[in-house]
Amino acid sequence: MQSFSARAVLKPLSLTLAMTLGSTALANEDEVKKSMEAFIGAPAVESVKRTEFGGLYEVVLKNGQLVYTDAKNSFIIDGNVIDTATRRDVTQERMNQLSAIDFGKLPLDQAVKVVKGKGTRVIATFEDPNCGYCKRLGKELEGMDDITVYTFLYPILSEDSKAKSDHIWCAKDQGKAWTDWVVGGKAPAEASCDAAAVARNVELGQSLRISGTPTIFLADGTRIGGYVPRAELEKALSAVKQ
């Protein structure tokens, strides 16, 4: 009579169990997507992923919003999940991952370039010239050294924003015209040229789901939405792997 070791029996059983659990999780995720879209009434779900917290499922919508539900979609949570063991804001970390970009694919030739010092640290910003927080950010950046800033003119507030953006883009010295305005309050002189790059910036920003200004991107693709003081930006830059 042939004998079998416990290891020989357990190995295929564990493999079968893992495959079964994986299939079940995938099926549940598909079901959650279907039930969520049925509730919304539109194919609005980008992805569904089971989390390690209380049977919750992470649901990413196509508009960039992140919500949570259970396997039966019996409730929807619109808020942040905090891991009490580590005090991590799990939702914010996930949103940072989802909103990150490939920095190398940004069309930097469509941006106003300002170099301070050696300029070894690099960021890209999307800014409206009439945005008050953009002006505050400009003053913070003015006090920083060793940084290259690519500013994508992103006029989304008014027609005057579009006019100012065009004048800055068409200026002989774009960087000076931008800095003079956001830092010094000196309105850009009227200038004309092919300002199609500004319109392309608006299309680009919309494709990146940028709904407010300023929006900052670090060289590793990390997105920072909104104004941040110099100390916070310095801290974020120091965390970027070169």
Strand content: 15-25%
Full CATH superfamily name of the largest domain = Glutaredoxin
Straight-line distance between termini: 64 Å
- What is the highest CATH level, the class of the largest domain? Alpha Beta
Protein described:
The protein has 242 residues and is α+β, with helices and mostly antiparallel strands. It folds into 2 domains: 6-98, Disulphide bond isomerase, DsbC/G, N-terminal (Nuclear Transport Factor 2, Chain: A, Roll); 109-238, Glutaredoxin (3-Layer(aba) Sandwich), CATH 3.40.30. It has 7 helices and 11 strands. The chain has helices spanning 6-40, 90-99, 132-142, 159-170, 174-182, 196-207, 230-238, and strands at residues 45-50, 57-61, 66-69, 76-77, 82-83, 88-89, 112-116, 121-127, 147-153, 215-218, 223-225. The strands form 3 sheets. It has a 5-stranded mixed beta sheet. Strands 1-2-3-4 form a 4-stranded antiparallel beta sheet, covered by helices on one side. It has a two-stranded antiparallel sheet with strand order 5-6. Helix 3 links the parallel strand 8 (121-127) and strand 9. The N and C termini lie far apart (64 Å). Mean pLDDT is 88; it is low at 1-23.
Would you summarize the structure shown here?
By secondary structure, the protein is an alpha+beta fold.
Question: How would you describe this structure in keywords?
Answer:
2 domains, four-stranded antiparallel β-sheet, Glutaredoxin, 40% helix, 242 residues, disordered N terminus, Nuclear Transport Factor 2, Chain: A, five-stranded mixed β-sheet, alpha+beta, 19% strand
Write the layout of secondary structure elements.
Blueprint: H1 6-40, E1 45-50, E2 57-61, E3 66-69, E4 76-77, E5 82-83, E6 88-89, H2 90-99, E7 112-116, E8 121-127, H3 132-142, E9 147-153, H4 159-170, H5 174-182, H6 196-207, E10 215-218, E11 223-225, H7 230-238
Parallel strand pairs: 8-9
Antiparallel strand pairs: 1-2, 2-3, 3-4, 5-6, 7-9, 8-10, 10-11
